[in-house]
Write the structure tokens for this entry.
Amino acid sequence: MSQSIFRSWRSQIGYFCVEMSDSIGSRKAIHTNHERHTDEDYAVTAHQELIDSVISILQANARDHGLPSISASFSVDNFLVWSGAIGLASIEASQPAKVTNLYRAGSVSKAITSIIAVRLVDRGILNLDRPINQYLGNYPNGDEITSRMLGSHTAGIRHYQYSFGNWPPNEFFMNKQFDTVEESLRIFKHDDLLFAPGTGFSYSSYGYSLLSFVMERASGRSFSQLLREEIVEPLQLTDTRLDVASLDNSDQAQYYDVKDKKWRPTRIINLSSKWAGGGVVSTPTDLVKIGLSIQDERYISPEAQNILVTPTYKDHDAGALAGYSFGWITNSKMNLLTEDKHVTTYSHAGSSVGADSNLLVIPAFGVVVAVQINRSPRLGSTSAELLSDDIGRLILAKLT
């Protein structure tokens, strides 16, 4: 118990130090009427009234919450209906957001990584229940940890923490380049586990870093290759890749911290420490295609889909993540249809520095909703997850 309290205290110090540093310096007001900038694609005229309602929701939220831009996309009956972007991709340049602007997907990256993993399972390349040392050789505690544990956050691998002697002090804001996944494991490789593997639940982006290394060793391909060959190419995606600092990132929206409708650019970070768990950049259009893929038996088997959406750990210790499966959270939501009728959803939210993302699948209706915002999440403000639910509720109201 004392170790848990210490970790929580240490993490809070890290966040407090970063908040203090971010409060220094001026903020500038966001341009008025920025939410009127709208770009759209894939508009299906049969759903024009629905599209107009979604645009109104996005414009109102951009205005009321001072969001620089919101990019969104949705499907109906398993077909992509609309993608659109509201607001400014760059406030400084008054550059309107485009459907093709990339945003940090944050932990939605975990949902993507999990699909790659079950694709490898389908072909017999990866066994989720073998100890990872059958692939890695001598990783610490690797004779007790399995890939299924890593993907379901039950392996005992820690999450971000305060790092004494480093700036910024919290690992969430790390700006260090790691050239390989294996190199990034040094951050946590020799740290104690939080609990015996398989006996608890603790959300961990680093667990996904280790999972991606197991996938690399099992397949003989780098994680970047796996993303391209197992996701991007078969799903014909155009705007999904790893956030690599050395690449030309002009296609990405600019990232901001916003408070009281005043903005400032975020600090510079490097996501090579957590590509599999939080380092993918994408667009809502591509994310909707990824969401649709998990119900496509031509792409993954029914057995693979069950792995993705069957909760692994239902104990109360998981809290809001009690429905966590393997890279996806399975929920039975009451607020999308009527007060007394539940609807099953598969989803994952993602927070990153300067970005907020969410991917929501409502399988019974062939509805997938993806929302991305180029602003760091803030308590008391709207989020990509709340907006996804709002859009999903609007769609279901039209369909039922």
About this structure: The CA atoms of residues 62 and 389 lie 16 Å apart. The two ends are 49 Å apart (CA to CA). The longest strand covers residues 79-90.
